[in-house]
Amino acid sequence: MSSFRSGSSLDALGGFGRYALTQVFRAIVILWGAFTVTFFLLQMMPGDAVMIRFMDPELGLSPEQIEAMRVLYSGSSNPLVQYVHTIGQMLQGNFGYSVQLGVPVATLIAAALPVTLRLAAVGFLLSLLWTLAIAVGASLLPLRWLRQALHALPGFWSAIPLYWSGILIIQLLSFRLHLLPVVGVGPWEGVILPAIAVSLPIAAPQAKLLLQQIEETEQLPFVMAIRTKGASRASVFFRHILPNSIIPSLTMAGLVFGELIAGAIVTETVFGLNGLGHLTREAVSGQDVAVLQAIVMIGATGFVVANLTVDLLIPLINPTLRSAPAGRKETSGS
């Protein structure tokens, strides 16, 4: 009886429910793989943070005491035991202690994460706005040279180094035009300039893909048929071309979201923000493994959650994909 009820409940989930459960399971496996690879790569990193911190002769610690400190910070000197200990603690929300600073890693993350989250959120939204603006302008603007310039703009953005674009944005918007100050601003105002800098290289591949998809969709027979009926250019674009072209760009938006964390290291350095990028740089210089492990897992989690969100939204946005699970369900029921 219990197995029958279990089978009935799985059937009740429907095609989309099974698809969602599959994507969630894949996300968990990816996070586990990211943790495992990161853990053993950090173990192979040359040097020893515990030795760097406690080998100072002025401290007067014996080798036995230094080994005891290593066990205190990592749970054991055995890498496999450390692995099990660390993953168990992380599942409970305990990231361990920073060897260099002697404070809980969670405390450091709690202080730095809001800055990076604000930067990532504003930068990601700006990248979507740039992508849509380029696509609409390159498709609907009346001047041909302007449409061609918009087509070339993503390639130009992707070729500019992030640190250079950050410096140019500061010079233009802050020093020349005096639109946004660099210092003496609030937490949200302070991320506008760095968010603009980090959004440009992220928007570039999205805009390239969306423009390519729009060109392919414009050649489809149903679009040409709609145009022959006298529909306006803007109406055809917004009602038919854009909805059928945007799905691959949304998928790439989830993929490039991880670049925000990588770009945060450079961006926060240029703009003097004390976020995860600044914390990563300090942890690398001090070989603070616990801090690095936590930052990598936060970045991996953000990357996986962004991709999972996109994967779950696509069947809801695209009517064809949304009706596929229902069609399979009806076939199995008949």
Written overview of the protein:
This protein is mostly helical and about 325 residues long. The protein contains 14 helices and no strands.
Low-confidence stretches: 1-13, 323-334
**Helix-strand pattern:** HHHHHHHHHHHHHH
**Which percent range fits the helix content?**
over 70%
Radius of gyration: 25 Å
**What does the overall shape look like?**
flat
Share of β-strand residues: under 5%
- What is the distance, rounded to the nearest whole angstrom, between the alpha carbons of the first and last residues? 23 Å
Number of helices: 14
Number of strands: 0
Structural class: mainly alpha
Show the helix and strand layout.
Elements: H1 2-43, H2 49-54, H3 63-74, H4 79-91, H5 105-140, H6 144-159, H7 162-176, H8 192-218, H9 221-228, H10 233-256, H11 258-271, H12 276-286, H13 289-317, H14 319-333
Name its key features:
single chain, 334 residues, mainly alpha, 0% strand, disordered N terminus, disordered C terminus
The gist of it:
It is built from 14 helices and no strands. It is mainly alpha-helical and 334 residues long.
